[in-house]
């Protein structure tokens, strides 16, 4: 039963949150005031955590998907004993603080994912819950349960309005992710006003149709909340949604209004709110001694659970040394190095699409990468993303390594983020054009620095007859604009193998592999320069270098064909394959100048917009052959010819450049 001290603990959370928002003169006090009761029940009665070891692998995950209410999360983490000081709570939304306006990924202080754009945290949590099931299937053995935790979410109306929540919730229900429990803060207010303006969904019916278990409770009745969570934890075949009817801004002058959603209460509002809860209005950032003792009890309980788990793990390592070693690799974020020895080599026998080469690479290395989890947004045969031995992950059977995401690119991206945040190594495929659907999730993966791999095939107008709706033109440049995203557009099979090597060796950010539909000649060496971003692929003999041709992907073969024509005419040129701008920019200035000599005219060739190529092609001493319009429906060779992506046109343009 809940007593006065439980109510005092919830009030303390509320007061810390509104003090932080008021001191910053910025933030969202409404959710912390309304959701404190459900958060307290979750953290004190259910959440399994050890604040002295925040990254304990078998901890429960908690995601505040409604990240605008971050002041509540920071108050919780501080009181729960995580290494988040009161000074950081006071420094809410300030330069260099650990307490930004929306939570940013920092597991060392208990923040499991970055939640800003609504719906992202919800969908990340689906990935986390799926990861728990996958890991349990991989590692648990009779008598040795080392993976046994839940993923909890507090979500808002806005989270459930966003389309990504529909995609992720649908897949979660389909896969029967029973370890996922979402508390929906149903306060019926959004920024514009009452949700009645835009939102008349019957949420329980919607989630029931997805295959979820449903509960409806008073979000301010702790006993009802506890009973619902307890019932949800007992569910064996479905995720659970607990609809918690709450009052936004509870106890404040702006209660039940949109104003309290995203604006500080003001000094008078803070005073009146504190008086409503029987709190001394002159006390700021105050934690009663009995509340510190109250949370200490739950901290110690979590520490003891961790110690008991560690004893089981020690026995597990003795009983299953091979699995124990694999578990340790998982916890350390390391891959079995054996996969590098199996990278295939590609000969010049016949043209081969780089998407096909990518599939052959996966086929060769997947058996040594037990924690590599693949998938595709209903394009598996086109993306070549499923190795032949990769079992399908299905409802009730999570022992496989391949996920059929369905036509859900946005949801796929966020679920992959959740898998990566949980320590798995996910990759997922779709057409490059549909990276637009995934862009918010790609951006967050880059922001968090997590090793997700995107397999983007059908990379240009070279896909041919599907026409301009499916032909990416601006997507490659837009992906390059995302900080910390490594974009790799290999020219052939050997560069594709090298691209996979770079992607899987990377641990501090996501990688996008940009792959062709059409066949391309094989001409790069096995030991190529992809790891440096750009390298000299061809250079004619002679003394005076007349020009440098820079190309990426399938256009490298066009540059090579032009190079041969020019060589026959006695014109010395160089072909530079530039699969990655990011890797090239990271090289020393001396290396960059050795590849792109200063003062030598440059011609860039890429089947995409020319907008950003000026950084490598001098305006007065260079040209770009690109596509600054949409594509066309025709066989790809006809499109390339009509758009000037031919060796003959390259030769002509280069001759004009060097006259």
Structure notes:
42% of the residues lie in helices and 13% in strands. The chain has 659 residues and is α/β, with parallel strands linked by helices. It has 3 domains: 4-302, Rossmann fold; 337-514, Thiamin diphosphate (ThDP)-binding fold, Pyr/PP domains (Rossmann fold, 3-Layer(aba) Sandwich); 531-658, 3-Layer(aba) Sandwich (Rossmann fold), CATH 3.40.50. The strands form 4 sheets. It has a 6-stranded parallel beta sheet, with helices on both faces. The chain has a 5-stranded parallel beta sheet with strand order 1-2-3-7-6, with helices on both faces. A hairpin with a 2-residue loop joins strand 4 (189-190) and strand 5 (193-194). Helix 1 (4-24) packs across helix 2 (30-46), helix 1 (4-24) runs antiparallel to helix 11 and helix 20 packs across helix 24 (647-658). The termini are far apart.
List the helices and strands and how they pair.
Elements: H1 4-24, H2 30-46, E1 61-64, H3 70-79, H4 86-90, H5 120-139, E2 151-156, H6 157-161, H7 163-175, E3 180-186, E4 189-190, E5 193-194, H8 203-210, E6 213-218, H9 222-234, E7 240-245, H10 259-262, H11 266-276, H12 289-319, H13 321-332, H14 354-365, E8 372-376, H15 380-383, E9 402-404, H16 409-421, E10 425-431, H17 435-448, E11 453-457, H18 475-480, E12 486-488, H19 493-505, E13 511-514, E14 535-539, E15 547-551, H20 555-568, E16 573-577, H21 581-585, H22 589-595, E17 602-605, E18 622-625, H23 636-642, H24 647-658
Parallel strand pairs: 1-2, 2-3, 3-7, 6-7, 8-9, 8-10, 10-11, 11-13, 12-13, 15-16, 15-17, 17-18
Antiparallel strand pairs: 4-5, 14-16
């Amino acid at each position: 039963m809940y007593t006065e001290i439980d109510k005092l603990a919830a009030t303390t959370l509320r007061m810390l949150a509104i003090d932080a928002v008021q001191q910053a003169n910025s933030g969202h006090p409404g959710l912390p005031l309304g959701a404190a009761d459900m958060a307290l029940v979750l953290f004190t009665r259910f959440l399994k955590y050890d604040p002295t070891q925040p990254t304990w692998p078998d901890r429960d995950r908690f995601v505040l998907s409604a990240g605008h209410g971050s002041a509540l999360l920071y108050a919780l983490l501080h009181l729960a004993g995580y290494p988040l000081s009161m000074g950081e709570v006071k420094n809410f939304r300030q330069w260099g603080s650990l307490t930004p306006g929306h939570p940013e990924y920092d597991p060392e202080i208990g923040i499991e994912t970055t939640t800003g754009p609504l719906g992202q945290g919800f969908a990340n949590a689906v990935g986390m819950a799926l990861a728990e099931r996958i890991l349990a299937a991989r590692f648990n053995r009779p008598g040795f349960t080392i993976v046994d935790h839940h993923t909890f979410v507090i979500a808002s109306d806005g989270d459930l309005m966003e389309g990504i929540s529909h995609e992720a919730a649908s897949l979660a229900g389909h896969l029967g992710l029973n370890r996922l429990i979402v508390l929906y803060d149903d306060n019926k207010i959004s920024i514009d006003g009452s949700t009645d303006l835009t939102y008349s969904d019957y949420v329980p019916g919607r989630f029931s149709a997805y295959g979820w278990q449903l509960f409806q409770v008073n979000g301010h009745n702790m006993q009802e909340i506890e009973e619902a969570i307890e019932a949800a934890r007992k569910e064996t075949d479905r995720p659970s949604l607990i609809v918690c009817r709450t009052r936004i801004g509870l106890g404040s002058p702006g209660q039940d209004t949109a104003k309290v959603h995203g604006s500080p209460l003001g000094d008078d509002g803070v005073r009146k709110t504190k008086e409503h809860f029987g709190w001394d209005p002159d006390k700021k950032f105050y934690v009663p001694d009995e509340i510190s003792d109250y949370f200490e009890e739950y901290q110690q309980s979590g520490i003891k659970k961790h110690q008991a788990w560690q004893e089981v793990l020690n026995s597990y390592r003795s009983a299953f040394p091979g699995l124990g070693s694999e578990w340790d690799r998982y916890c350390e974020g390391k891959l079995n190095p054996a996969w590098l020895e199996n990278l295939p080599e590609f000969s010049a026998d016949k043209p081969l699409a780089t998407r096909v080469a990518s599939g052959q690479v996966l086929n060769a290395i997947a058996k040594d990468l037990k924690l590599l989890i693949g998938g595709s947004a209903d394009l598996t045969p086109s993306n070549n993303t499923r190795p032949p031995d990769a079992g399908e992950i299905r409802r009730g059977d999570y022992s496989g390594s391949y996920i059929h995401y369905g036509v859900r690119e946005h949801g796929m991206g966020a679920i992959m983020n959740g898998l990566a945040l949980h320590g798995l190594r996910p990759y997922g495929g779709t057409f490059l054009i549909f990276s637009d659907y995934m862009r918010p999730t790609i951006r967050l993966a880059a922001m968090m620095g997590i090793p997700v791999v995107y397999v983007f095939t059908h990379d240009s107008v070279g896909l041919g007859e599907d026409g301009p709706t499916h032909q990416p033109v601006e997507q490659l440049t837009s992906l390059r604009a995302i900080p910390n995203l490594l974009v790799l557009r290999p020219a052939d099979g050997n560069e594709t193998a090298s691209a996979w090597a770079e992607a899987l060796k990377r641990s501090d950010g996501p990688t996008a592999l940009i792959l062709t539909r059409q066949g391309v000649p094989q001409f790069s060496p096995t030991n190529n320069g992809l790891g440096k971003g750009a390298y000299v692929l061809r250079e004619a003999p002679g003394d005076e270098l007349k020009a440098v041709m820079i190309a990426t992907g399938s256009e490298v073969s066009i540059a090579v064909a032009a190079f041969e024509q020019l060589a026959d005419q006695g014109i010395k040129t160089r072909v530079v394959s530039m699969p990655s701008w990011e890797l090239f920019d990271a090289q020393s200035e001396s290396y960059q100048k050795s590849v792109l000599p200063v003062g030598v005219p440059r011609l860039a060739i890429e089947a995409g917009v020319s907008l950003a190529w000026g950084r490598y092609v001098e305006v007065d001493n260079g040209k770009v052959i690109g596509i600054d319009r949409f594509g066309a429906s025709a066989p790809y060779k006809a499109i390339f010819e009509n758009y000037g992506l031919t060796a003959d046109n390259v030769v002509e343009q280069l001759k004009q450049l060097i006259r």
